Model the fold of this input.
Amino acid sequence: MTLHTDIPTRADIERLLTRRTPWCVSIYLPTSSIPQEAQADRIELRNLVSAAVAQLEAAGAERRAVNEIREPLDELAEDDEFWAEQARSLAVFATPASVRTYRLPNRLESAVEVADRFYVKPLLRAVTFPQAAFVLALAAGAVRLVEVTPDGPPFTVDVPGLPSDAASAAGKASIADRAPARRLQGSEGQKVRLRQYARKVDQALRGVLTGLELPLILAATEPLASIYRSVSSYPHLVDTTLRGNPEERTDQQLADEARAVLDAMYAREAADIRDRFALLASQGRASADVATVARAATQGAVDTLLVDIDEKLPGYVDEDTGAVTFADDDAASYGVVDEVARRVLLAGGRVLALRRPDVPGGGALAAILRYALVLMLAVCVALPATGCGSSSSATSESTPAATATTATTTTTTTPTTESKQEPDIEGADIARLPPVARATAPTHPTSQGGTGGNAFLTAVFDDQQAMWKREFEAAGIDYTPARLTIFRDAVNTACGPQSAQVGPFYCGADHGVYLDTRFFDALSRQVGVRLGDFAQAYVVGHEMGHHVQLLLGISRRVAAANHQDPAGSNARSVRVELQADCLAGIWKHSSYQRGEITDQAIEEALRAAAVVGDDFQQRSANSTIRPENWTHGSSAQRQHWLIVGFDQGRPAACDTFAQPSP
Done:
């Protein structure tokens, strides 16, 4: 009896994830391949069906809908032929109109979920790292296909049309038979016949493997191994070959070697993903925050999503904005991570299900993004209605008045983010930058009553650029100019395409500061806080601060630290953003000395700093304040470091990494 598995393909997963109907039942249960143990599995299925019926009735499902779900599931429990061939787990997805089952090679815990969509996340593990494979034991004298599962016995698969050996495939008594005159002889002739043999093997395997995504591991010797690889049409043929004559090894021996290959392959893949996440986190191209990832997925910005297979987060994800609201686990809510995964897959992204220790950040999910997000100003998160945000819970129901009130209360919040002291990240270069020199004349236009505009922002940018150029020259450090781009709707950058929804941002790959001036008006409308010219100048200063960090090597050292210690990446991100605020304050100091800004303008900038604090964002989203999830700092922290830069006018004072708690 062959262990039967029908692992879903990506297309199957997408169909399950996109299904929407009032009543969807998802059932998972561990099963056994031993027929004598099937009775216990049937009883477990009946119990889970009863639990599903109870949830349906409690949620108000009509009796007809309940019966249309219950009856085919009861019939499934009584189907002797179905239970004769089982794998390690069974997944069942039922609606009043259909039932779909998958027999999986990995062992899952019993679970039942009722919602308006299927609970698919446990299924993703079978697709991501199934620990199952096929071994093609290929020799000139014999060939067989062996099915390998994580911990069950291997089995030889019956493959219709599979040739018995190379000679019969070539229609010869032996591949060493001499060919007619003027035909290839000797070793060249044998290679031709081996190639014919390999093609026929590949053709036969198509009938079994087509549509599957399991790895195929080749066990063969040369030259047959290389010949088969040259003709194979299966896209999931593993690079590693099991060397030696497979005719001399049992199925179990081949399975043991194959499992070692799978373990090494998956370990490398998981390690590569963790390393890539750590490297990209400081560039804004990775996040472990649920709300940030949900919004990125909604915008099609997620390249790779990593999810914890064991945790379910019940709640809702806004269809338009991606805002997350957590809820009780009932028939009305659904899996937030499932919904995020659906959006990632439909946007062409990749989803991997891991155990929690392998998920970067140790949370429910993590994502590698298609373009940079971290090194932009956090004002993006003040627009929940347009899809920005990084709070752990969000809602679009907050009013501008309520939001403005929250801004007032958060300006006095005591900083709570604790992190170890990291004096080595900044290095000595920032201390070499001297206090800003006093200019003798204004160098940019004065405020025009909050009208802002391209001319004002360009002049502010040029003034800041000139100031930092002088600072670097005085310190004997090379200065590479930043460049300003003011755009509408969307822009292509070296960090990838960006929409206006992400707000102002800095792209280190092209030293670009990117602004959409309409963002400031939208922010004022949504938050109920007026952002005038010098609040906008603060935004420019913050992004220029990221440029300074890049030129001084701070960004590179942060990336290296995140690579070594991914768990501390959020805390480092806070220090990076607070330092950029301090550097923005230094330009304010220079401008104030020249008499170009007033105390009112400073208050305007402080108000903007309060609005973009992480605690403000969490409160405005009616979320619990969670400092461990912060990536930009609280309102009070952001105001504090802006004031430090403004009061002292010394870049060396912006030493956020040397503070036990910034």
User: Anything to note?
Assistant: The two ends are 64 Å apart (CA to CA).
